[in-house]
Amino acid sequence: MLRYRTQGLLAVGLGVFAGGCFGDPEIRTDLRTEGPPEILAAMGQSLVTALELPFYCRYVNGVKDEKAPGYVIDYQLGSQIVCPDAEDDFVGVDMDPFGYGMRVMFDELLDGDAVETLICEEDGVCAGSLLDTQPVTLTCGTSNTAVDYDGYYTPNGNNTTYPLGPSLVVVPASFDFATGTTCTVTMGNNVRDKSGETVPAAEASLDFKIADLALVGTDPEDADDVTDRTVLDPDGAVAFAFNAPIDDTTIAASEFEIVNLDTMAVIPSGFMVDDLNVTIDAIFIFGASDLPAGNYAARLKSGAEIGEVNGGTITLTANEEVRFVVE
Predict the structure, then answer these.
(1) Model pLDDT, residue 127
(2) Shared-domain flag, residues 70 and 205
(3) Cβ-contact 118, 18 below 8 angstroms
(4) In the predicted model, is pLDDT for residue 315 greater than 50?
(5) Is the Cα torsion angle 79, 65, 130, 309 positive or negative in sign?
(6) Structural domain count of the chain
(7) Is the pLDDT of residue 262 over 90?
(8) What is the pTM of this model?
(9) Which residues of 133-170 are buried (b: 16+ CB within 10 A; e: fewer)?
(10) Structural domain ending residue among the three candidates 209, 235, 264
């Protein structure tokens, strides 16, 4: 079967990109020619921000595998160090709770027919799929719940430019596990090289984590100096932004407040949960009626326990406060 494709980021909803079917690339620079296929790096792909960030890099005796990616050039997303030279300097990045895929990079070409079904249209445009071949096992949670997925194989690529390759891209069919959940992707026996060798069993499984629920910012930002504080309309709201969809039923009226900083009076207030933008959800706190001119602070209070729709929670250990001005 012919297989070659230019690859970008994940396609909406499926994670499969189309390209031309031209056969395996002839130039195999920097690929190993001997031994079983080794996993050099694994990148988490945010379906929202389009960023690819590593959650695994291959190190041997604490030193980066010579074939693993180091400084990688990406003209669209910005260049970065994917795998630092020393293992002690590597910090894996957790998955985006709003939606993620993963790219698993190998040191040699795989048997494309074993890992992927390639469907080509009459005009020569092809799309790859892992639905029938199911080359990996993906499980999440303490019960190791199996997760359905699709994806594709990218035979082209290298260790210096994006997208890294050769690689398998795996995209879960759903994202209904709680923030903080640990998952595992395991290479199956059909993840094999052209000689039929499979990934060594001791190296065939990679763990990753869905990022913990976290407060990632506020709108507007807080400021110590009154002159630096944002001026809001009397009916304005302060947004506390999180990295996962918030469950508004987990928020109690006692966990937030607006305080008039001129009088220290607590102002009757309300809240709503909505998107701040496509990458984050926010809790909006506002006065129950228009606020008169003055200096104010909107607070999520210490001890507040906030949950996201899949069950993850965060408990605040200090007040999260935004001070603002109404004129």
Answers:
(1) 86
(2) yes
(3) no
(4) yes
(5) negative
(6) 2
(7) yes
(8) 0.86
(9) bebbbbebeeeeeebebbbbbbbbbbbeebbbbbbbbb
(10) 209
The SS3 assignment for 146 reads strand
Is 110 domain-assigned? yes
Residues 190 and 220 in one domain: no
Calculate Rg over the CA atoms of the chain.
24
pLDDT value, residue 78: 72
Q: Are residues 113 and 198 in the same domain?
A: yes
Q: How far is residue 309 from each of residues 175, 205, 208, 248, measured CA to CA in Å?
A: 11, 28, 20, 9
> Domain limits at 48?
18-209
- Residues 176 and 58 reside in one and the same domain: yes
Determine contact, residues 229/247, Cβ cutoff 8 Å.
no
Give the tens place of pLDDT for each residue, 205-219: 999 999 999 999 999
* Same-domain pairing of 83 and 194: yes
Domain membership of residue 281 (yes or no) is yes
DSSP, res 68: S
SS3 content of the chain, % helix, strand, coil (to 5): 5, 45, 50
- Per-residue model confidence as pLDDT tens digits over 69-113: 999 987 666 788 999 999 999 999 999 999 999 999 999 999 999
Question: d(Cα 305, Cα 300) in Å, to the nearest integer?
Answer: 10
The amino acid at 3: R
Residue 300 belongs to some domain of the structure: yes
| CATH number of the domain encompassing residue 227 | 2.60.40.1220
What is the dihedral sign for C-alpha 276, 15, 50, 107? Answer: positive
Task: Work out the mean pLDDT of the chain and round it to a whole number.
Answer: 89
Task: Pick the last residue of a domain from 189, 209, 229.
Answer: 209
DSSP string covering 226-295: GGGSPEE-TT-EEEEEESS-B-GGG--GGGEEEEETTTTEEEPEEEEEEEEETTEEEEEEEESSPPPSEE
Tokens of 36: 């079983």
Q: How confident is the model at residue 126 (pLDDT cuts 50, 70, 90)?
A: confident
Please check whether residues 151 and 289 belong to one and the same domain.
Answer: no
Q: Within a domain: residue 44?
A: yes
Same domain (yes/no): 26, 174: yes
